[in-house]
Structure formats: C-alpha cells, structure tokens
Predict the 3D structure of the following.
Amino acid sequence: MMFHLIRDSLIKKSKRLFNFFLFSLVIFSSCSLENGRKPVCHVQLYTDEVVFFSSEKEISCLKIDGNEPCGKKEISVRQTDLKNLDQPITYKVHNVKNQVICEGKFKIPKESMKFAVIADTSYGSGPLPKLVKIMVDFSPDMVFHVGDFQYDNRRDRWSKLFEYFAPLLSNSFFYLAAGNHEYDSERDAEILRKYFPHEGNFFFEWNGIRFWGINTFKNGWQSDFLRFVDFIGNDKPLIIFIHKPFVSLSRWEELGTMNEQVLEHVHDRMSLVFSGHDHLYGRVHMVFPQKTVQNIVTGGGGAHIYGCAKAKSRDFKIGKIPPFKAEVEKCIEEFNVTLCEIDKTKVQCRAVSSEGTEIDNFSVELR
C-alpha cells in the first residue's frame, strides 16, 4: 500500500515538473523570439537637427558623416554638423556589440519637398503592400502616418507592418500622429512607446512652414497642447496632422465634427489638415468667415472601408469657434494614399487608390 502511495506521488510530481518544463520552454522561446527580432529604426527631421530613433533597449551609436554620437532610444545630430547637405547622406546604427542594427539614407530637402500621407493601416490587408509600393515609387522625402498604425496590437503584427514599411523607414523621414487604437490598452500604449518614444507628437519648421502632429489620446494631452498653442502663434503657414478629422465624412448620415477643443485654438492658424479615422478618402472645405481650410481624410490605408455620409454640406456653430460651413468636395470609398509636393508657397497633392488610379488632385496656396 505504501509503495503505491509513493509511486502515485512521484508520478504526480513528475507530471508537474514536466508541465513546468513545457511552460518554461514556451516562455523562454517567446523571450528569445522577442529578443531575436531586429530593432526598428526611423529618422525624423526637425528644425535644426536630425533625430534617429531605435527600439534597441541598450545604448546604440550612429555612424554618419564622420560623426559617431551615441544614445539610448534616440540620437540627435545637428544639421550644422553634417556635410554635403545637397547630397544623400548614408548612416548606420550600431549596438553595444558593434553590430549594425539599422542603416539607410536620407536627403534634407531644400527648395521643395515630396511627402506622402497614409492612415489606418492593417498588417493583414491586401491593399497595404500596394499602397506602400506606390509611396516607395514616389520617393518621398517624408512620410506622415496619421494614426491607427495597427489594430488589436501585438508585436508580431507591428513587426509585419514594419516589414512593409522598411523601404520608407530606411530612406525617408518618418512621422506618426497617434490614433485611438494606439491606446486601446496599456499594452498597446507600451508598444507605441517602444517604437515611437514621443508617442506620435511632433513639430518642426521647414522653409518657414510649420508641420504639427497632434496626439489627442495620451493622458494629459490637453495641457501639453495648450502650452504649444501659445508657442506656435499664427504668423506662418501651419500644416496639421491629427488622427480624427475636424469634419467626419462617415460616422453619421449627416456630417459631424470631432476634435472641437483643438479646432477652437487652431481654426485661424491652420493652412491645411491631414487626418485619418474615417476609412475612406475625403476632402472637405471648412469655410470660416476669414479663410477656407481643406481637411484631407486619407484613412484608407488598409483597414476595412467605410461608407460616405449622405450629406454634402452642413453649417456648424460650436462653442467659441466662429460659425463655419463644411462642404464636401470629395468622398470616395477606396483604399488610398495621398502624395504631395510642396515648396515655399504652395502644396500640390494627388490621392491615389491601391490600384494606382488617381482619385483626386488639389492644391493649396500657403501664403
């Protein structure tokens, strides 16, 4: 009898040990997979400097134009420290073992610049690789992603998206204006911070034109936004990148407004707005008493397409915002990307479907 009790006890312990071994093996494999992933890098141009971002946890060093600065998560290089700014500049990022983890090239645009805008992408989407190829063929100096980089966020899905975007991350300045799905959970926000430490906020000036990416989903964003409004002023053209459009084209049968708190402070400062959130392509004229501003909705980056609202115009009176009229110039239920060229006085853009068809063409005078 005692023998059987001892035998059964040993069998149970063996099973527990075996199950623990399997659990540990799964955890170890997951950690190894995470640690084995190649770090993701991207570069952003700011008014006076170029900033390199890396998802590498340890300190990394940058080799560029005879300079070798180091940093953790981000490395800044002043433009005045770079040579031959008229030519493409190549760079390599090394980890502490002197292994190359990222490399690429960029050119700082001078008199004119090309940029692409996309939003609401999804790793499982058939159209996304086509849209990325369209952007790559366009050879943009800058790429602006207007939020909802990935849905139901998991690192493997981000990794797949980074594979798609790799040619743009390596050869263009890349910016993200965060969307609501970047904050679906604390885990999602953690992944966002891993790859984009500034959490989708950016601001820089190029040739007297200001580019502002606004995150309206981070806790406490209002106080940061209001402090920045005081800094910006309204003496120069301002292009805004914000996930939710000021005028939504697909959330209701009638046109509706979003981000009213932001609009109250920027309606008299902004020259052009790019948004996502509505999964389609749209262009809306916001007619204020003193000026007309175009809000471009380019949310057809791969997530399922929404339908257009039936209404084509609507008058609004919201809080302290002057009365204005929204007039829909375009609303097209297609996957899309917007490609633009800009100089000191004008932006010329065209929207292109995933099949390469031009679905809209417009220009905006900046001065």
Notes: The radius of gyration is 24 Å. The chain has two domains: 41-106, 113-365.
